[in-house]
Design brief:
The complex is a heterodimer of chains A (about 140) and B (about 120). With about 140 residues, chain A is an alpha+beta fold. Chain A is about 35% helix and about 30% strand. In chain A, about 35% of the residues are buried. The chains are: A alpha+beta (about 140), B alpha/beta (about 120).
Chain lengths: ~140, ~120
């Protein structure tokens, strides 16, 4: 089940926790970013960052359970484009995730764990907030 | 409906995989199967042509990391070619050109394989 809604400067998409939905998430976020005035490179970067956030939730917060929910909320204010991704899965503490040293990472043929690194590279701000009943990842990009 | 496709062909004894579409956490199993097929057939000189690859996320990049060690231990290599700037940027952002040779054109990559053999 996929549900889209909009209100003033806010667009909302609710999806089930399957990787099949990633394509729709990217389309939804790209459409909003385009409407906000970002160029193609910026639109691609934002869509990829949101894909990474949703993929992490599906894998780590929900352990690939396909009957859970993820809500994506886009808010657009002045020059600030913000995407909040909300889940009700396992709590995630970003303090315990070490950003990889890419040189070391590649030389040891490691795999996985690149999503958070990419999000931080692609967005201006990445914030996590853990609430009693849900987790929120907030990705922000400014229009220059 | 899958929005990602891998097809196989040969170019001067190099095993070419043509990728088409969107490589994300949903479609990576197709690429994993493709690598496993080639490795099972002991085909270790692998060139991934990315001409029609429209999108890659870290899940897709992870697949290349998963097989490179195995392939190189068998005296082969995974090289890549024909990436769009959009896809190359993501490889570059993560420093992948340090570990993988990425060519503008498929034939340059094939020549590099030939020079080594």
């Amino acid at each position: 089940m996929r549900k889209k809604s909009s209100h003033k400067n806010e667009l909302r998409l609710r999806i089930v926790s399957t990787t099949e939905e990633l394509l729709h998430v990217r389309k939804f976020v790209s459409g909003a970013a385009k409407q906000f005035g970002f160029n193609d490179d910026e639109i691609n970067n934002i869509a990829l960052a949101v894909d990474e956030a949703c993929t992490n939730i599906i894998r780590h917060a929900y352990d690939y359970a396909e009957d859970q929910e993820i809500t994506i909320v886009v808010t657009m204010n002045k020059s600030e484009f913000q995407v909040q991704i909300v889940d009700h899965g396992r709590r995630f503490d970003p303090e315990h995730v070490r950003m990889p040293d890419m040189k070391e990472y590649l030389s040891h043929y490691k795999r996985g764990g690149l999503g958070m690194y990419l999000m931080k590279k692609l967005m201006d701000k990445v914030e996590y907030s853990i609430q009693p009943k849900h987790n929120v990842v907030r990705l922000t990009k400014y229009l220059h | 409906m899958s929005n990602f496709k891998v097809s196989f062909r040969e170019n001067n004894n190099v095993h070419v995989m043509d990728l088409k579409g969107y490589l994300d956490a949903h479609t990576t199993p197709h690429l994993e199967e493709a690598f496993e097929k080639l490795i099972a057939e002991k085909k270790y000189n692998i060139l991934v042509n990315c001409k029609d690859l429209s999108y890659i996320s870290s899940a897709g990049l992870g697949v290349f990391m998963a097989y490179i060690e195995d392939v190189r231990m068998n005296k082969g290599d995974i090289k890549l070619s024909n990436m769009s700037p959009k896809v190359f940027n993501i490889f570059d952002l993560l420093g992948f050109p340090m570990l993988y040779e990425i060519f503008k054109d498929e034939n340059e990559a094939v020549k590099k394989f030939e020079a080594k053999s």
